[in-house]
Design a protein that fits this description.
Radius of gyration: 23 Å
Shape: flat
Strand content: 15-25%
Helix content: 25-40%
Strand order of the largest sheet: 10-9-11-1-12
Largest sheet: 5 strands, parallel
């Protein structure tokens, strides 16, 4: 009989500590958007129609579906007289006008920070400005912001695009930004815009939202302290993807998961400290499930980072409190 020891299958992971980012998870705009759908369901009953995913998170969308929300892309799929909610990402003027023409009872869950960008675009357009928008083609927020105007708004996704953009005039040119971009990437592209168009008008306050910046800042602090960084978020979530990309750029091995089931034990082999954060549309429930799964891989403690405590709260639209009359459909 051979004395050669049998190989050990799946050696246990060596994780000793989970470092938990602060802040992480839901932002005020996401909280408000979900509350709008849930209040509408409570007040008016199912079904409530929602144009596009209310926020980009699989768990949240499926939970609201179970409660009676129906997610659609085309307004023709909404029956006359129905209650319709616009998603947190915002919609174009064309979508807004079509929904009003169809006579739906409308509640707008657009994040107020996105609405701020829309208002700025409308105001400056009346003054004769054209716009350069920094963002990702096809993202619903970008489509909504660019759709505030019929013409005169040009999308750039990277520095190379800046060299190719051809506004009709440059005397009145302003820049706006998708709210969920990488802070560093947006700064690099903004610098290229300023270099090519030195008189470009920039927002008084940057368009990237406070929550996106805070979560990215936490990853910057966390990444040098961990050997592996897990981001909880859905593949469609822009801000979640930016967190993983930032961690990788800073030298940390990083993966994004939609749920605890997607964690793979081999990621944790030989890792003693693991960082954990969540995109602004990922609920804390999923974070806690991920923690329990990593504990099953051998983690023995969880430590919260020091970080910014967010206190921002956005009010619900009128007509959603149970003691308020429902708004009449627009005819």
């Amino acid at each position: 009989m051979s004395d050669t020891p049998l190989p050990q299958a799946n050696p246990p992971a060596a994780v000793k500590e989970i470092l938990l980012a602060e802040p992480r998870g839901f932002c005020a705009g996401v909280d408000r958007a979900i509350d709008i759908v849930e209040h509408a369901l409570t007040k008016f009953g199912a079904p409530i129609y929602v144009r596009h995913e209310i926020v980009h998170n699989t768990y949240v969308v499926n939970d609201l579906k179970d409660k009676g929300a129906i997610f659609i892309e085309e307004l023709s799929d909404v029956p006359p007289g129905a209650t319709l909610v616009f998603s947190a990402h915002g919609v174009s003027k064309a979508v807004q006008q079509e929904a009003e023409a169809r006579g739906f009872s409308i509640f707008d869950a657009t994040c107020p920070l996105v609405t701020k960008v829309h208002v700025e675009v409308a105001k400056l357009a009346k003054e004769g400005y054209e716009f350069i928008m920094i963002g990702h083609k096809g993202h619903p927020e970008v489509e909504g912001t660019m759709g505030q105007l019929d013409r005169g708004i040009h999308l750039v996704e990277d520095v190379a695009d800046v060299a190719r953009v051809q506004p009709l005039q440059t005397a009145k040119l302003a820049v706006v930004t998708q709210t969920t971009l990488s802070v560093d990437d947006a700064a690099e592209i903004s610098a290229a815009v300023r270099a090519r168009f030195p008189t470009v008008r920039e927002p008084k306050m940057q368009d990237i939202c406070y929550a996106t910046q805070n979560r990215q800042d936490a990853v910057k602090i966390m990444s040098p302290q961990v050997e592996l960084l897990i981001v909880v978020g859905s593949p469609t979530s822009s801000n979640s993807n930016r967190l993983r990309e930032l961690a990788v750029r800073l030298g940390a091995e990083s993966y994004m998961v939609d749920s605890a089931d997607e964690l793979q034990e081999q990621w944790f082999d030989g890792k003693t400290r693991v960082g954990l954060t969540a995109g602004a549309s990922a609920p804390e429930l999923l974070v806690q499930q991920v923690i329990e799964r990593i504990r099953a891989f051998g983690a023995v403690s969880v430590r919260r980072m020091d970080g910014i405590q967010e206190t921002v709260k956005f009010p619900l639209p009128k007509g959603l409190r149970l003691d308020e009359p429902a708004p009449a459909p627009i005819r």
